[in-house]
Specification:
GO terms for molecular function: glycerol-3-phosphate dehydrogenase [NAD(P)+] activity. This is Glycerol-3-phosphate dehydrogenase [NAD(P)+]. The chain is of the alpha/beta class. The protein has two domains: 161 residues, Rossmann fold (3-Layer(aba) Sandwich), CATH 3.40.50.720; 143 residues, N-(1-d-carboxylethyl)-l-norvaline Dehydrogenase, domain 2. The chain is built from 16 helices and seven strands. The strands form two sheets. The protein has a five-stranded mixed β-sheet with strand order 3-4-5-6-7, sandwiched between helices. Helix 5 links the parallel strand 3 and strand 4. Bound molecules: 1,4-dihydronicotinamide adenine dinucleotide and 1,3-dihydroxyacetonephosphate. 1,3-dihydroxyacetonephosphate binds next to helix 9, helix 11 and helix 12.
């Protein structure tokens, strides 16, 4: 919708005929965006070739679990000089690769045509043109600026950044912390606990990101603190809602089937735990979330484990401190 507002002819690929028909005839996407009316210059198709052939910009927004399959489908139709942008927040399952790595492996383009878009940007608010700020990161400043130019509107402000790793790691890991925020809110643990979770969550994001080669300053920006705050506090957050349902005592399977939308933090918890081991960094919140999600640990005893950890300094493990 933002690109369409900027007068691009937007071709949207989807798998469902019903959804495609609805978008083309009623200009709504009621399953995901209730009664929001989409701009008329968005057309939908189930044919990937129709959507992608000749496109100047190709935007990937599949869940992380589907990114490789979708990229494989799109690859034959993407021209070498297209700019490819993704807005997906997660790692690939099993390989734990970042999304730009997956795209580079599948698409006929080089890293200097690849961009990640991230930051606090719930679709429900963007489609209503409520003020939103995001960051676009690329190894190539010109590609980031092209993405900035394509997306920037008076209600959607876009900053550039060179730190692809930092932006991707921040966007993925904040979902784990948001699951935790939903849990603590659901358990009635109060505002002090949530503030602690966000702050120590940011330490965890920074620690892993730094070990993976990110710029520590990225975590103070929109993809870091910005997205962490919105995902841990917004009623729109799927991860927060999933956490609060877990606190009510629902099983993970029940929560996921009730959500009916992707909750990236669940898979990301397993991925981040593996990456933490691989890079030799401590991620205690992630460890406890893993135990709650996959080892039947109760949320209350997870909080007790976090509060009962050995004494430590606040800043010595943070990059740049
Ligand atoms: N919803 C939001 O406000 C934001 C979402 N994101 C990120 O965007 C990504 C997608 O999230 P949402 O759109 O919210 O998820 P969603 O669950 O609302 O929609 C996902 C879509 O992907 C489709 N899909 C699932 N598996 C597929 C496959 N194998 N092949 C093709 N299509 C498949 C589903 O049918 C559905 O249409 C996630 O990584 C999320 O973190 C990022 C910023 C904001
Ligand atoms: O990343 C998001 C907003 O910036 C979306 O987060 P949720 O998937 O938790 O809704």
């Amino acid at each position: 919708a933002v690109l369409a507002d900027n007068n691009y002819e937007v071709a949207l690929w989807a798998r469902s005929e019903t959804q495609v028909d609805e978008i083309n005839t009623l200009h709504t996407n009621s399953r995901f965006l209730k009664d929001a009316v989409l701009p008329p210059n968005i057309t939908a198709t189930t044919e990937m070739g129709t959507a992608v052939t000749g496109a100047e910009i190709v935007l990937f927004v599949a869940p992380s679990s589907a990114m490789r399959d979708v990229a494989k489908l799109a690859a034959p139709y993407i021209s070498e000089d297209a700019i490819c942008i993704h807005a997906t927040k997660g790692f690939e399952s099993v390989t734990y690769k970042r999304m730009t790595t997956v795209l580079l492996e599948e698409l006929p383009i080089s890293a200097d045509r690849l961009v990640v878009l991230s930051g606090p940007s719930h679709a429900e608010e963007v489609v209503r043109k409520l003020p939103t700020t995001v960051v676009v990161a690329s190894a190539n400043v010109e590609a980031a600026e092209k993405a900035q130019d394509a997306f920037i509107t008076p209600y959607f402000r876009v900053y550039t950044n060179k730190d692809v790793i930092g932006v991707e790691v921040a966007g993925a890991i904040k979902n784990i912390i948001a699951l935790g925020a939903g849990l603590t809110d659901g358990l009635g643990f109060g505002d002090n606990a949530k503030a602690a979770l966000l702050t120590r969550g940011l330490a965890e994001i920074s620690r892993l990101g730094n070990a993976m080669g990110a710029n520590p300053l990225t975590f103070a920006g929109l993809a870091g603190v910005g997205d962490l705050v919105v995902t841990c506090t917004s009623k729109h957050s799927r991860n927060w809602r999933a956490g609060s349902m877990l606190a009510e005592g629902l099983s993970l399977d029940e929560v996921l089937s009730r959500m009916g939308m992707v909750v990236e933090g669940v898979r990301t918890t397993s991925a981040a735990r593996e990456l933490a081991h691989e890079y030799g960094v401590e991620m205690p919140i992630t460890e406890q979330l893993f135990a709650v999600l996959f080892q039947n640990k109760s949320p209350r005893s997870a909080v007790e484990s976090l509060m009962g950890r050995g004494r430590t300094h606040e800043t010595e493990d943070l990059p740049g401190v």
